[in-house]
Amino acid sequence: MAADPVFALRKQTLAAIRGRLKQYEMKKTELAEELGLSRSRLHQLENGTVQAFSLEALVRIALHTGLTVRLSITRPYAQD
After folding, report:
1. Domain range spanning residue 58?
2. Is residue 69 part of a domain?
3. Is the pLDDT of residue 2 over 60?
4. Which pTM was predicted?
């Protein structure tokens, strides 16, 4: 069975968010509040728990951190 492309997008988005969170120099409570998350949700983000987040939730969090999110949709390549 082929890999789940939505799961791959979630992983990629979460990785970008985790990288961005390392740049913040504030207490966890303040950071969670800044992002509109609970401390436990922030902990899940920092630990890379992909299963805990929908793609939509991750996109919203990414935008809150100042990241730009783009989605590109293309046709499959023609097979000869």
Report:
1. 5-64
2. no
3. no
4. 0.84
